[in-house]
Amino acid sequence: MERESVKKIRAAVALAAVLALTACGGGSPSGGGGETAPAGGGEASGGMTKINVGVIPIVDVAPIYLGKEEGFFEEEGLDLELTLAQGGAAIIPAITSGQMDFGFSNVTSLVIARSKGLDMKMVANGVATTGDRDKDFAAVMVKPDSGIKDIPDLVGKRIGVNTLNNISDSTIREAVEQSGGDSSNLNFVEMPFPDMPAALANDQVDAIAAVEPFATIVAGDGAVPVFSNYAYPVKDLTVAAYFTSDKNAQEKPEVTEAFVRAMKKSLAFADENPDKVREILPTYTKLDPATIEKLTLPKFPQEVNADSIQEIADISLKNGLIEEIPDMKALLPQQ
Q1: DSSP secondary-structure letter at 127?
Q2: CATH 3.40.190.10 spans which residues of the chain?
């Protein structure tokens, strides 16, 4: 059991984590720069409704780029503009202010945001684990001679995570606990994803919680996976979702419903066409073709797994990221 003081410290910095991290990664792990978001939700030419969606240039958002290319949003009367947010720090406040209509975030950040009184609401699925703890788009990676062979071996070790008090460290803690280890004796070190390969190579940390493309990059340097903290301990985890504000969803129900329909088409297309996912990545990331070919792609289900998000909320409460579980019915999309 963690001491109460530790939990209070984590809760105090949790809201800062929301604003600093609104997708699976802080920074731009796949490259690409930020752009200033224009005002969202306007009438475009030809009777189309212009919408602005905040995304981060990572593998996870490939479906929305494919949906735009395939014309799924146009079919729904939407003129889609995608704004790259450097690190994602502007997405939640941009939606609150009306600069953006929708955004992309990991589910832990959205649970924290809702618990802090921010009226963020998931409207569509974003990305999900493959469900295979040995082959997923996120993995805890170590050097082959580290002596870390299984989850309990992480106890007492230094583990690099892209941000503290969020989805990576809380799921790793839960996995260690469920595997019989002492989850309070884990030393998490915050660092951007791009710094993780060097930190592991130089023994600054014993393990890193990497996502693609960094899991593939460090594997190329000889690192090996211990397990995927997205595939375990939570079953069929919805890792991230597209969201808006309650106000936007209520004031623009037809636009929101059209966005959801277009996203479902986009997610289905991406899940059925992994080659198309790989082909679209160079259009908004700086990944090289050799790395793209080796990537482990996530799953893109059309629906969020509500049970998995409830488990994330429970884990967040247990680890002191939130003081109370928010109204999950208000947070989750209508399905």
Answers
A1: E
A2: 4-129+236-331, 138-227
